Amino acid sequence: MFHIGIDPGIKGGLSLISAETDFIYCIPMPDNFLALKDFLVRAKECSQYERGIHAWLEKAQSFPKQGIVSAFNYGKHFGELSAALTMLEIPYTLVSPIKWTKAMHAGVGIKDPKKKTLAIARRLYPKETFFATARSKVPHSGIVDSLVIARYGMQFGGLK
Questions:
Q1: What's the pLDDT tens digit per position in 20-78?
Q2: CATH number for the domain formed by residue range(s) 2-129+152-156
Q3: Is there a contact between 53 and 1 (Cβ–Cβ < 8 Å)?
Q4: CB-side exposure of 74: number of CA atoms within 13 Å?
C-alpha cells in the first residue's frame, strides 16, 4: 500500500512511500493547484500496482501571533489539499501534529522538534538527502515532516 504524507504549509511537502517496494518520492509543496493535482494523480496511478493508497494530511491549525492574512492563506491551502484528495478519490485521514510527533518522537533525545524529526527521517531513510533541489544545501523541513507523517500513517494508521 502507498502512503502519502502531507505537511500542508506553504513551505510544506508531499511524500509518497511504500513498505512493499521501498519506494520513496518527496517534493516540496507545489506553489500551484495544478502541480499538486499532478503529484496526486501520479501517486494514485502508482497505487494501481499495489494494494491501494491512503493519505495522511496534517490537520490545519492557526498559530499564536499568526496574522489574519497568513491564517487565511493557510486555511485556503489546506482546503485545496483536502478538496484535491476528495476529487481524486484518495482516502485520507487528518492527523494532528501533536499525535504524529508524539508517536514518532518517542525515545529520541533531542529537544528541538525540527531537529528531532530530521534525526528520525535520517534514521528511517539513511539514503535520502531531503533536499528540495539538487542545489540545496540543507534539508527541506516540509519534505522531512511529510515523509515522517507518511511513515507515521504506515506504522500507526491501522491500514494494511
A1: 878 899 999 998 888 999 999 999 998 877 778 999 999 977 666 767 777 777 778 88
A2: 3.30.420.10
A3: yes
A4: 17
